[in-house]
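Convert to structure. Protein one:
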Amino acid sequence: MNNKIELIIVACATLLSVWSCSEDERILEATSLKVVHTGVDAPGLHVLYTQFDEDFAFANNPVLSFGGNNRFTIIANEERSIAFVNSTDTTSTVLSTSVNLPAGNISTLFLTGRDSNINTLLLEDALLQHNDSTAGFRFINLAPDSQSLIFEADQGISPLSLGFEEATEFLEVDATSANGSYSFEIKDGAGNVLTTYSTTAPVFRNTTLAIIGLVDNGTGGNSLQVIRVDSF
């Protein structure tokens, strides 16, 4: 059943809920949105995508920190506003945006940039369907002070050169016990190794590997690193 996980999520995202409004009944469909915080030197954030109600409390709302991600279920086929509120000063909205996503869609919204210059990058997750011992890797460069960075794997994947906010599609890779572990070197244009990363390929699943942080800052949460974002 493992090879059906992402298809099940798509199906769950399209489950219908009914909202009665006077004599009019509207069918509200759902879509899945994963939000990933890669904004360098940006604070932890509350992600607000629904109206406040009388029971709302920021203390009960999860905080999205640098390098972290959360998945949300969003009403589909209509404009939905999303606000990102500073977790240490909830009177301050760091960024706001809106999305209009089709029913059953699975997408990822990356918060990118640096300091007060934080932006969003929305990617639709065109997931691969796996029928054998394979997985999917997507690669993206979200290091705001980079020019071109290179993902170089120890097996199975040709070197990939990506500018800031450039991403690949999901690429099929082996996910067998013999060939399911991958080590990467992240290099600059001159071939210097800036950081390394190792992971296993989750069989039948799709995963994004994102370079985040700063090329020129080797300390703290801003240091160049690779994070893994599973697309489910």
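Protein two, convert as well:
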Amino acid sequence: MLTGAGLMYVMRKSLAFAGSFFLLGTMIVFFGVHTVAGERGMLARPQLERKIMLAEEQLALLEKHQTFLSHRIGLMHKGGVDADILAETARAELGLYAPNDVIVSIDLSDLKF
């Protein structure tokens, strides 16, 4: 038969075991829920893949726009300035157009290269 001290020891040991079991179970449930339904969990994966695809498309457009602008800058920096680019830039910046010129304005921010 257990005395008072022995009974307290057994109760403390069983409470420690139950507490550690509860803590471990809580951690497993916490990480399990976040793995499945968290911000980056399995259920959010299709939405994340769609965001990645949109970002890659935007990156490709920006790279094409950069190539276009690099080409235009290259035409202005090579030994001498390309006469057509110089005339186009001067007319656009200074607003110097001949009376018979047709002006077509293109917003490059909406343009998809």
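The chain has a mean pLDDT of 82. Residues 65 and 109 are 9 Å apart (CA to CA).
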